[in-house]
Amino acid sequence: MRIAIYSRKSKWTGKGESVENQITMCREYIAMFLEGSDKAQIIEYEDEGFSGKNTRRPMFQKMMRDMQEEHFDYLVCYKLDRLGRNLADLANLMEDLNRQGTSFISIKEKFDTTTPIGKAMLYFSGVLAQMEREQIAERVRDNMIMLARSGRWLGGTTPLGYMSVKVEKEVSPLKKKSMFCLTQDPDEIGLAKFIFTCFMEKRSLTKVLRSLVAGGIRTRSGKEFYISGIRDILVNPVYCIADEAGYQYFYDLGCQVCIDPDELDHESGLLGYARTTSAVYRNQGTPCESWIISRGRHQGIVTGKEFAYVQQLLASNRSRGDNFRDTRNSVALLSGLLYCTCGHLMRPKNYPASRVTQKGERTFAYRCPYKDLTHRERCDNRNVHGNILDEAVCRKVTGLARPDVGLAPMLEGLKRQIASADGREASKKQFMEQEYDKKKSEIRKLVASIKQLDAGSVSVQYINEEICRLDGECAALGKRMKAVLEEHEKMEMTDLSMEIFEKLSDFTKVFGQLPLLQKRDFLRQVIEKVVWDGEAAHIYL
Quick one: DSSP state of residue 283? Predict the structure, then answer.
């Protein structure tokens, strides 16, 4: 008999219905009520920190795959809403369980899905779970609207040109409330204004990037700007002034604009809430209809009319970019691994479609984008033929895995050499540690004897000289012990290198049969990076 236990908790709290408590209670139920459970194979699936609003949970998906491959007799969980709070997902799950002949047990609700009334009660509970989820989402959104109307900054990386400051408000003589708000950073706000002005003049993100690079302007962390970072600045409502044009722009987008007409002061900036998804599915944009726009407590830098114009330009460039800037390279293996000596990732660029290799593959070259941006002023590295470089790197990596040459003999020899010396070095290390402790003990005794003598005594002078001699010997022993420790670390590194060698062996066996994306993933397991210096490629494992 095979039994699956599933547990889930949206947020770790260290108490209550933790995944550990859920597993324990499910095991106790199985032992008490399921006949033959003492000989059953019990498999546990735990999703910590995942919401029940959908089934995009790693262990839940693994459980469903395992169920398809090998039959489960029972699926046990603490409560129905641990499986999910979406009625459609629950209905689909029950259908899958019925097809597999798997019985479902919820130890709190005590459902029996083998009877019609049991199924009806299960679906009814699913309706309640979905209603509860929607009510929770509604309460969260109402709370976010109240926070938005206060104009507070809810945390995270502050936008370019602004910094977060703490504002305290005295509620009573004994109580204060505090919140964080944005305020302009005088050292950065000029750069933010420059980016907007430059884009409105040149109408191109690439040209703005070139202007920043030519001026040696970097981000606050000292890194160079990227087009994606410039776009993020231009679409951020924080820079838009609260005026009629800005209000109308976000209203027309379908956003929930939490500003009364008399609050449009033509000076404050706007704040956008709920523009991205939760921490679990971060870095994904949300529909404009879910955005909450309010007036902040900071100053904006562009009018609503200018902000709307910038968004129009971005949309126009994006529609053209989808046609002629989309990368259609289907053969570049070193994409994301190949660096120029100037430190920038090199990008593949296709040659004309008429130029193909003997295998019929489209030819391409790797180019340094920094060279193009600076018009060869800060990088003049040669382009490299992509097809030839990819093949040469793969051939070199494959050669390293040959048993008679490459890494294998070197690693094995180094391992034997270190292993043979390991016993001797261990005894030497133990002897040196004893000597070190002995000399330190002598120093402590001499220091104690000085306290009992007069400061001007001749004996004190000789004792100090002896302490200096012993201290020098301790320092020398410390260096020798450090060298022995480094030898042990070499041994550990050799073991790690042997693991890399095993990956290389797998690389030669299966690489030729893999599709392009899997070849890239395989290369990333073996290669850290490849650096092109204009004449040769340097491979770092």
Answer: S
Domains (range + CATH), the chain: 2-145 (3.40.50.1390), 188-324 (3.90.1750), 407-540 (no CATH)
> What DSSP designation does 33 have?
H
Alpha-carbon distance of 450 to 395, in angstroms, equals 71
The β-bridge partners of 164 are 182
Kind of pairing between the strands at 175-184 and 256-257: unpaired
Report the DSSP pairing between strands 364-367 and 347-350.
antiparallel
Q: Which of 230, 226, 184 is nearest to 203 (CA)?
A: 230
Beta strands (DSSP E) in 84-200 are 103-106, 162-172, 175-184
Under a CB-based contact definition with an 8 Å cutoff, are residues 269 and 238 in contact? yes
Tokens at residue 33, please? 């009520």
Q: Kindly report, residue by residue over 349-397, the tens digit of the pLDDT.
A: 888 877 888 777 788 999 998 888 777 888 888 999 988 998 888 888 7
* Helix (H) or strand (E) segment spanning residue 454: none
d(CA 482, CA 312): 64
The H or E element containing residue 60 is: helix 58-69
Q: Which of 421, 413, 425 is nearest to 494 (CA)?
A: 413
What is the C-alpha to C-alpha distance for residues 372 and 525, in angstroms, rounded to an integer?
Answer: 30
Beta bridge partners of 77: 6, 106
How many Å is the Cα radius of gyration of the chain? Answer: 33
Residue 126: closest CA among 169, 94, 157: 94
Q: Take residue 363 and report the two structure tokens written for it.
A: 């030819």
Maximum CA extent, the chain:
103
User: Which candidate, 518, 536, 538, 519, places its Cα nearest to that of 528?
Assistant: 538
User: Distance between CA 238 and CA 249 in Å, rounded?
Assistant: 14
The per-residue DSSP string of 125-140 comes to HHHHHHHHHHHHHHHH
CB atoms within 10 A of CB 375: 12
* pTM of the predicted model as reported, rounded to 2 decimal places: 0.52
> For residue 176, which phi and psi values (nearest 5 degrees)?
-125, 145
Q: Quickly tell me which residue has 């029950």 as its tokens.
A: 94
Give me the helices (H) in 215-289, please.
227-234, 244-253
User: What is the rounded distance in angstroms from the CA atom of residue 26 to the CA atom of residue 170?
Assistant: 50
- pLDDT tens-place string over residues 9-67: 876 555 556 888 899 999 998 998 888 888 899 999 998 888 877 888 889 999 999 99
CA 124 from chain center: how many Å? 39
Q: How many CB atoms lie within 10 A of CB 360?
A: 6
Point out which residues pair with 3 in neighbouring strands: 42, 74
- 302: which DSSP letter? B
What's the full length of the chain, in residues?
541
